[in-house]
Design a protein that fits this description.
- The protein folds into three domains: about 15-60; about 75-130, no CATH class; about 140-225, no CATH class.
- It has eleven helices and four strands; from the N terminus they run αααααααααββαββα.
- The chain has helices at about 15-30, 35-40, 45-55, 55-60, 75-90, 105-115, 115-130, 130-135, 140-145, 165-175, 220-225, and strands at about 150, 155, 195-200, 215-220.
- The strands form two sheets. The protein has a two-stranded antiparallel sheet. Strands 3-4 form a two-stranded antiparallel sheet.
- About 40% of the residues lie in helices and about 5% in strands.
- Mean pLDDT is about 80; it is low at about 140-150 and about 225-230.
- Helix 6 packs across helix 7 (about 115-130).
């Protein structure tokens, strides 16, 4: 009896892995396959492939296959999806609108998680209005040191972070009625309008990341203001 080592695949090109994943999907006549299904029909060990790409979902994405249904999705991810849809529409999304390509997750999924779509929205609003949103912006001592910038001979020491958190950004969009403060454009009136939230007084000039120094602008106005990306 002759003993042999298993074939070594660690240096196999990524495209060879993906081609075999697509081949298995085609063989099973499926738009998405599970790690277990690939393990039963694939040429390579599924762990080798997931180690290469980071996760089985990323393997599906790289192979241009559909990503299987997620389970145990973190509430923050579900809320971020509501935020994205709400921002695209410029208003509260309706039950029937929570579907692809507009929404990553279906309204039915929110029903199961929170009891109803209405309860999901109520939980989302509570999350957005949480006081911890302000804590997201406050710089601690270690961050203050990194936030010191030089502008000629002036040294600026900030009490807030430069980055605007997702929750604060959404609060500003709601405050400004999802409308550009400069030109008045809004996704409510014009489909496809992209909204940004930016500092009124630039952070590099001493402006802080606080509601009173933030405003909504459409991408066209924000990208054209000149100083937006020179802070």
């Amino acid at each position: 009896m002759k003993f042999e080592l298993e074939e070594y695949h660690r240096n196999t090109p990524s495209e060879d892995f993906l081609a075999d994943v697509r081949s298995v999907a085609s063989k099973l006549n499926k738009k998405s396959i599970t790690l277990v299904e690939y393990g039963e029909h694939g040429k390579y060990h599924p762990t080798t492939i997931t180690n290469r790409f980071g996760s089985w979902s990323k393997v599906m994405e790289a192979a241009n296959l559909e990503i299987g249904r997620k389970v145990n999705i973190p509430e923050e991810e579900l809320f971020k999806n509501i935020e994205d849809v709400w921002t695209k529409l410029g208003r509260q999304p309706r039950y029937a609108e929570m579907k692809k390509p507009l929404s990553q997750f279906s309204a039915g999924g929110y029903d199961k998680r929170f009891g109803s779509w209405r309860k999901a929205l109520e939980k989302f609003i509570s999350y957005i209005n949480s006081e911890s949103v302000n804590e997201d912006e406050i710089a601690d001592n270690s961050i203050q040191k990194n936030a010191i910038t030089e502008d000629k001979d002036v040294i600026i020491k900030h009490k807030t972070k430069r980055e605007i958190s997702d929750r604060l950004r959404f609060r500003i969009l709601m405050r400004d009625s999802f409308t550009c403060k400069k030109c008045g454009r809004s996704p409510i009136k014009e489909m496809g309008v992209e909204l940004h939230v930016d500092h009124i007084d630039p952070w590099s000039k001493g402006g802080e990341t606080l509601p009173e120094n933030l405003e909504t602008k459409c991408a066209r106005c924000n990208l054209g203001k000149g100083n937006a990306f020179n802070e």
